[in-house]
Design goal:
Blueprint lengths: L21 E4 L4 H12 L5 E4 L9 H4 L7 E4 L2 E4 L1 H11 L10 H26 L4 H17 L12 H11 L1 H8 L9 H11 L2 H6 L3 H12 L16
Parallel strand pairs: 1-2
Antiparallel strand pairs: 1-3, 3-4
Helix pairs in contact: 1-3, 1-6, 4-5, 4-6, 4-7, 7-10
């Protein structure tokens, strides 16, 4: 039976069960959270194998040569890369359809999803650099298009779509930047986006996958120190 704590380099992978969807993940990984959000929002049953991403088990490379998570496995099907896992879940499983039907909206959202990869490094730059001014300025500039396209509660209008869930994990971690660097988004500069954050917090999928600011801040501090505590919150710190 899979457990919540991570599987390390000397441990065997639990046997795969027929017709049971499996997610290979890491509890604090924002990329894996993209997939977890989709799974929860679409009410898909699955089991989770959490992997030590610093001292990886060898069998993870047989599933994804990069050794990265998330990875989904269902019988002989193996899907990796967070965008691909989200699209596959939306295509294959029933539940609310999260891919826009309108071509223009679909292409717009795809551009914004890929464009968000330019924003992600700014989170770490703001948290690490002594002179944060340039990183903050770039972060705001890159975020402005997301403010501009919001016309409803979510990027999907009255309900969330793929774009909402694909950018959310890093927005959830904005509290870390407030704690570490005193940075937070201003409702005056980003009125629609800051309201979107409030609305996202109320979604059941977000509630079931999120960590609080304190947990995110502590985990990232262990990452910056070179010894990430993947099982933080499951195992007393002294035992890690």
């Amino acid at each position: 039976m899979p457990r919540e704590t991570t599987y390390g380099p000397d441990e065997e992978c639990p046997p795969l069960k027929k017709d049971v969807l499996r997610l290979y993940s890491m509890r604090f990984c924002p990329y894996a959270q993209r997939t977890r959000l989709m799974l929860e929002h679409k009410n898909i049953k699955y089991e989770t194998i959490n992997v030590n991403l610093k001292k990886k088990p060898k069998w993870i490379y047989a599933l994804n040569a990069s050794g990265k998570v998330p990875i989904l496995q269902l019988n002989d099907d193996v899907i990796y890369e967070s965008f691909a896992t989200c699209e596959w879940l939306d295509d294959v499983f029933p539940g609310p359809r999260l891919t826009p039907e309108d071509q223009k909206t679909r292409i717009r959202d795809r551009m914004l999803m890929y464009g968000f990869s330019e924003i992600i490094p700014q989170f770490y730059a703001i948290g690490r650099e002594e002179d944060k001014t340039r990183a903050i300025k770039k972060f705001k500039r890159l975020l402005k298009p997301y403010e501009d396209v919001l016309t409803g509660d979510f990027f999907g209008g009255s309900a969330p779509n793929l774009l909402d869930f694909n950018i959310w994990p890093w927005i959830e971690r904005l509290g870390v930047l407030k704690a570490k660097a005193g940075f937070e988004l201003s409702p005056k500069e980003f009125p629609k986006f800051t309201q979107w954050i409030c609305d996202m917090h109320e979604l059941p999928a977000v509630k079931s996958t999120r960590f609080n600011d304190q947990d995110h801040t502590y985990f990232l501090s262990t990452v910056f120190q070179g010894e990430p505590e993947f099982d933080y919150g499951l195992v007393p710190t002294a035992q890690l």
